[in-house]
Amino acid sequence: xxxxxxxxxxxxxxxxxxxxxxxxxxxxxxxxxxxxxxxxxxxxxxxxxxx
Length: 51
Description:
- It comes from Marinobacter aromaticivorans.
- By secondary structure, the protein is an alpha+beta fold.
- The protein contains one helix and three strands, in the order βββα.
- A hairpin with a 6-residue loop joins strand 2 (6-10) and strand 3.
């Protein structure tokens, strides 16, 4: 997730935050988005790397 100069790296399987420069409320919103769309993100991740 990118927001301006801030960003976060989130593990899709566990929703663990590996690194973040986001503000707390931004990170919370980001985690909700990832949680809500995790299956779609994982499908696309696997499709991309199985080419």
